[in-house]
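Example record used in the benchmark description.
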Amino acid sequence: MHAAIKGTSAGGKSEIRKQVLQFFPPESVVALTSMTEKALIYFEGDLAHKIFSMACHAISAASGIGSTPGANSSFEADQHRRMKR
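Model output (structure tokens):
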């Protein structure tokens, strides 16, 4: 299952995400704010049966580039395209 929280700037999206994640045991949640294109390759934990939560930052519609320094733009742009479907 996938979920996306959309809203205006300072509309409480991150707070909603944090509140929802509190319903799950902490050991079942993998929460990230950004990642590089190879981050999951080098991730040492087990992602099986985990809730993977990633805070998504603004993406320029014109360029498809994420605003998070060091994060993979193509990864974020791909996620953004999937969320719009």
